[in-house]
Specification:
The chain is mostly helical. Helix content is 59%, strand content 3%. The chain has a three-stranded mixed beta sheet. The N terminus is likely disordered.
Length: 362
Amino acid sequence: MADDGTSVTTQDLTRDSGSAGAPEQVVPAAWKDIVATFQRPSTGRALWQIINTIVPYSLLWYLMYLSMAVSWWVTLPLAILAAAFLVRVFIIFHDCGHGSFFKSRRANDVVGFIAGMLTFTPYYHWRWEHSLHHATSGDLDRRGTGDIWTMTVQEYLESSRWKRFAYGLARNPVVLLVIAPLFLFLIRQRFPSAKANRRERQSVIWMNLALLGMASALSAVFGIKEYLAIQVTIYGVAGSAGVWLFYVQHQFEGVYWERRDDWDYTAAALQGSSFYKLPRILQWFSGNIGFHHIHHLSPRIPNYNLERCHRADPMFQSVRPITLLSSLRSFTFRLWDERRGKLVGYRRLRELRREQKHAARP
């Protein structure tokens, strides 16, 4: 755990005049006309995506079962591939939640529920929480729902020792990418939020019952030990990949955060959500979600239209991409520095303490 630097006063954290934070330019409202072209779902493309995602996933699941009688070294590669397809299943679930996958609302809800069973995620409850994430992304005064726990430097310094420890633990790579995904999908999603309304609460109950039925049936056919081994392994890999994708989408160099009075939707989308430029195969498995700046600009664009929209106007292409290599730097970001208008690591706390000592000298 890094030096807390608690001797730093909060007045040291007020923003320097002229520092980064607000967007350098105001993006014209013309983007609404541009994205409207790509908001039209295609039934054919949606059905083909279901076929080329859920069918291979189901087949790989069965092959994993057969391979367990041969060697775990055969099962593990199959699990990694199955996990990649499960990430793609989640993207279908995600699009259904936004009402963008099909033209029909009912079709979105039905497919969303089925995809939710495969990803252990209650459809209506998740849709509600995720809508809050879109409405508040990049807003410092409305953090806390559907996002990665992010504190400002000032908040961290004013927190208790226990809270600082919990925060550091939550952002530890092992906890974030190994423990947290399993906890989130297998345990946390089984309980509704206290703020959820009746339909969202009931969706958790119905999903739990559906999962119980699915787990019981598959355990009866394949054996409970085999079922658990396959399911936990796939979810361990898929969950880690999914949480990493979500993490890097809003935790990167140059990301946008502002207080509510200065918050701007367009800036929060184009500057607060990353353009994660992945190799083609990873882009396919992640359902184009790397074009996250486009997705936050218009959640009504189905995943199969995101790249086309990105290429439609220089405004979108001017967003600086993040690569697999450069994305690793996101591990070093821990806190939002309001004074600098950027994400920083714990080392920034030590710098502030040195600045304070220097200023205190006669």
